[in-house]
Each structure stands twice: as C-alpha cells, then as structure tokens.
C-alpha cells in the first residue's frame, strides 16, 4: 500500500478512478514518446511493473481451485534488498518530479 500511496501523492492521482496497482503504475508513468521525460518515465514504469507481484503479495492459480501457492519464493535478505530498491526508487521519482 505504501507504493500506491506514494505514487498517488507524487503524481496527484485520483485513486477512486483506479482500483489496481497496475492501473496506478500505468497512469503515474504515462507520457508520449515525444515527451523529453519519456525514457525515464518508461524506466520507472518497467521497474514497478516488474515488481507488481511482490508489491501485491500475489498468489497465482495453479489449475486446481484448491491449490494456491505463493507466486514468489524469496529469502529474507533478497526481500530486504527489493524493499530497499523500491524505497530508493520512490525517492528518485520524488526528486525527478520536483526538478
């Protein structure tokens, strides 16, 4: 929820229009290819989209209605590294948007 809140705050989005993390990511980093910030915005969008499963604590369907397994298998140290990278990226985005 922290990432959603941060993105909504940074980009002044209206979360009532968006119910899923992917919608927030797509709206926050939307820009035209002709925009001078296009490459950076695309980098941010790819970063968060690639971590969507981790951010959502998503469970995926394994073909049997009774069997759900975590979509990620991650050690505590790897999880901490991801958390740190996500927090650093949010700081980078704030700085980028303020410049």
TrEMBL record:
This is Uncharacterized protein.
